[in-house]
Specification:
The complex is a heterodimer of chains A (about 850) and B (about 475). Chain A has about 850 residues and is mainly α. Chain A contains 35 helices and ten strands. In chain A, the strands form five sheets. Chain A has a two-stranded antiparallel ribbon. In chain A, a hairpin with a 7-residue loop joins strand 7 and strand 8. Chain B has a single domain, classed as Alkaline Phosphatase, subunit A, CATH 3.40.720. Chain B has twelve helices and 17 strands. In chain B, the strands form five sheets. In chain B, strands 1, 4, 5, 6, 7, 8, 11, 12 and 15 form a nine-stranded mixed beta sheet that branches. Chain B is globular. Classes of the chains: A mainly alpha (about 850), B alpha/beta (about 475).
Chain lengths: ~850, ~475
Amino acid sequence: MKQQDRTRLHRTSSRTHCTTPILATVVFVLTTVSWGSALGDDAARTKEEGVAFFETNIRPLLVTHCYSCHAADSKKIKGGLTLDTKAGWEKGGDLGPSIVPGDPKNSLLMEAVRYEDEGLLMPPKGKLPDADVARLAQWISMGAPDPRTGAPAPAASEGTGMSSPEAIAEARKTWTYRPRVDPPAPEVVDHAWAASSLDRFILARLEAKGLRPAPPADKRTLIRRATFDMTGLPPSRQEIDAFLADETPDAFARVVDRLLASPRYGERWGRHWLDVARYADSNGLDENLAFGNAWRYRDYVIAAFNDDKPYDQFVREQIAGDQSTDAETEAAARHESLIATGFLSIGPKVLAEPDPEKMRMDIVDEQVDAVGRVFMGLTMGCARCHDHKFDPISTADYYALAGIFKSTKTMDSFKIVAKWHENSIADADDLARKAAHEARVAAKKKEIDEAVAGETARIKKEKGEAFAIPKDAEAKLYAPAVRDRLKKLREEAAAIDKEAPEEPTAMGVVDDAVADAPIHVRGSHMTLGKIVHRRVPTVFHESTSNPDFDAAASGRLALARWLSAPEHPLTARVMVNRLWRWHFGKGLVPTPDNFGRNGEPPTHPDLLDWLASRFVEDGWSIKAMHRRILLSSTYRMSSDHDARGGEVDPENRLYWRVDVRRLEAEEVRDALLAVAGVLDSKMGGSMLAVKNRDYFFNHTSKDTVTYDAPRRSVYLPVVRNNLYDVFQLFDYSDAEVLNGDRQSSVVAPQALFMMNAPLVIDLSNRLATALLGDPGLDDDGRLARLYQTALGRPATADEIARAGEFLHRFAAISPLPADDAAGRRREAWRAVCQAIVSSNEFFYIR
Amino acid sequence: MNPFESELTTRRRMLKQTAMGFGSLAFAAMLDEQARADAARDPLAPKPPHLKPRAKRAIFLFMKGGPSQVDTFDYKPRLQRDHGKDLPFAKPRVQFAQTGKLLGSPWKFRRYGESGIHVSDLFPHVAQCVDDLCILNSLYGSNPAHGGALLKMHTGSDSFVRPSLGSWLVYGLGSENHNLPGFITICPTLAHGGVRNWGSAFLPAHYQGTPLGVASQPSDQARVRYIRNPAETLEEQRLQLDFLARANRDHLEATGPNPALEARLGSFELAFRMQSEMPAAQDVADESPATQRLYGLDDPVTANFGRQCLMARRFAERGVRFIQVTHSDAAVQWDQHGDLRKGHAKNAREVDRPIAGLLKDLKARGLLDDTLVIWGGEFGRTPTVQGAGDDGRDHNPEGFTMWLAGGGVKTGVQYGATDDYGYYAVEQKMHVHDFHATILHLLGLDHERLTYRYAGRDFRLTDVSGVVAKEILA
């Protein structure tokens, strides 16, 4: 029953064109309902009585049951439908006209009040009494006489007014959409402090408030800050010593150059990007299958940062790398940009969604949302079901973009369990290996076939041509020698099968059949509205040139080029703001993933535009932007508290000092591994134990993923729905939704982890063992080395004394046997190491 | 309105993220009056509900896999009569798999209690409590796959990452015990949504569920991660934490006022207390033998789930807001596409006595008045047969049964109905959103007012739907 009803919803649009001719209506009315005493009654009387019927029976019913949601003065007009004027139901709501006068059967209103359709039950609070339903039908049969005049309420429910021409014109003037300017750096008083133009933007605001920037950070603090910032690791003793010894003015610039050249840089900053790319090694949500090749995208990102790939190219490759003309035609470069399109594929997906069309549109939606937020800081996803409530994005804008991704092949199959697409990245060697293997398989099969054929011929010869070879002939009729030989051959064939070289593939997309998408009314693929030609959102039509979207291609390349064009008002702004956020812990726009009206406006709009201009001018070089920021006086300030700053600007929105920041999840783990001396610096590759497309969990809850390898955290598996608990504890990106602004929480389970986790105890033990094993040190020297290694500074005499006393007392209360002095000593050292790496000084960067 | 959204400033947001709930944070010298007031308002502090609450806490007995309504609490004489015939109306447009003819229940139904409600022979013990139940026979959802349906049941959304029911409750109401988490999930399943089902999504991390073990672990081994130190005595650890605290205080002094650093100092003290509080709450050894028997701890078949239920009661007593107990082993749970007779019988036997024990125990202790007990799976099963034999049922989100007890619901009643065969919910239909709205209402929260601002809009557990089933309120 539902099936029919649902499909009927589809037909609403066609129903709207077949309005019944008036004459037929009248005849229908008169014959079926016996309204009026006879044919030929004058029309005026009919009309009068019809109106009377309406006033007596229908108006009160509409007022009581419908007006609260379907009248001009409703708190909220639902479904775009008003029933307080005749024009209201004539125009109808999102699903088209509500009433076909004279034809209750084809009137949507009747369908709704009869509770025939799952998706359309009105009134929602409960079905009307049968008598009321019958009266409504009678009234419609009469031709729905309705004296109520007036225009229907202007706004359809899904129209929020944000997409009107006026609203768009208004929006184009706001900081988000207006073209980027290149403002001159403001005048400042303290020229000595303002080493760069960047600093002048900061200082001018401080001076205006009568604030002074904090003094420069000392060199130990600075190198620790910069090293964690750029590599996610603590500086080594040697690196600190070298910096302290270098008294030349560009000593810090040299440190910055060294850090930027380190492969560790890409691992740290690539990980930042993976946060916004919602990177994971599984689809999450429901069935949770392994994205066994997602790691290739992760490695691509790390390499892109290490190679300082121009950001505009980086954007183009991720959206349209399969069509990119940036890359050389050589295989390696082509594969690289194919891998880049993994960006579109690695999002969370419901792979067991039983409705294939819903799955398809959910995936498209995820892509539109990701592209909108990652590159433009716009929450496009909001416009899937209705015009955006806060930003000038209409459902038409949304489906114009959705058409691009609907024309893109992300999935090979939508059948449960759905299969995502992967592109071959086999090189000549891979193909040769594959061919060689196939030849071996064929050869072995031939041998088997020949043996079977030979034996079949022998049996036929023996038993006659007409003899039907039974299925179990091999077991019963074959000569034992042949049987043995076949067994051996089959074993060999199976062994060859196992050696099949895996053709390397990468998650990613290619174009599919190209088509524009219809508006999905209220986001439902069951109720389709008008088709929207693919284009970029209207609000950008003045600041950028709207590219052509033709029938030959999905339009991803056009979209990617449009996004990465120098004049795009958002792409550069959004990225420099992300970079600023990752350096300073807060963005110039404090909501880096939302540049819309519901985000927060920039604290330094001029600086944002100035930086964005430099970014484009520098050929979209991310490393150049790092240099610009790190070498500024702003970055090099201390985090010292200042009474006046605390009073005037307690949140430090003006940057009168540098904020103290907690280590991020990966930094916590990597720094622990580093100070324990066990960090493995091997780069890249997959660390998944499950095969591509295999279940992480099916019906069982056994967790087989391990995180024991001392590799950098960026390489550990990211299993959606079951993230590594150490990551979860420390506010790791959720991996389901993009996140350019991680939280930094302090919760008791983090303390439990530092107190009790085997990982922390083990690493503390290793650190202790290394210290105790150094024959060149006495205990004071060991403690000094501990502070040096873990905190990057010498211990004070007080600290050495206190730690020494702790060691003594801890050993004294040890439950170990009294004669196990070595054991007691080792435990005490483990405990002191654990305390130091648990300390706020280890966890917070100044 | 999200009670925190007025706190627009970064500093206040930081306080929100760092305040710990361990009482007085010594901010006095550092912060102005307003900030101090904010810090005192820790995110887990009890909050006034929107409405007069009928229940203060909830226990969700989750039967993973989808128990069959027509074999348990939704008696369908027509189904018995028409066994082997065709379903006389259309099956849903979207089905998980194909099913065949009508399959009568292999179990006998009997009337129980003063209410005379029919319960099948699968649940003879729960049947004894039928006068305390409010049976909802008209639940429906949309997703016929486990993953989607689990997420829908727990978070209200099968396609987006959303906070789970328990997270919303703790966010809305706070917690009444600061040494225990506000939301505990005992032996949850890692499959089909996994942590999403107890995750806080975009709500702050304080509101996420704390898992005790996982479904593949026996419940007597279920622990909070890292709750025990494998290397130190408590005395040693105290000494170590004192040394750490001293270092942290020195550091704080050098750094200057910083609420996060201050909060982190306190977090170690709270963690230290949790180490003893949590195992004590879990330890059922001090329960009387009679109580242990009541929950079936004396029978190896019922002991595992019984211990989960008994722990749930102990957490409820200690003020934990939302406790989920999952019945799911490493095999197929309640998901009997085949082997219905054997599978459902085994499952029911494992949970029947413990659930009845929990209800009786809560009642005897006066806890049932303000504890809402929720029973059910992610969907029901088809009244039509699946597979070649006559011993399996497919997933069915179109109409299924859950029940409530305690916490201000009417008792000894059935609400809503499915059609004559138990396929579709037809009367007083209750969508999962309606179910959530009703649960929030019972706990004193208005589902339309319980919102959280994220990515530029206010989110709700019930999205843009949900109607409270007022008829079932006592």
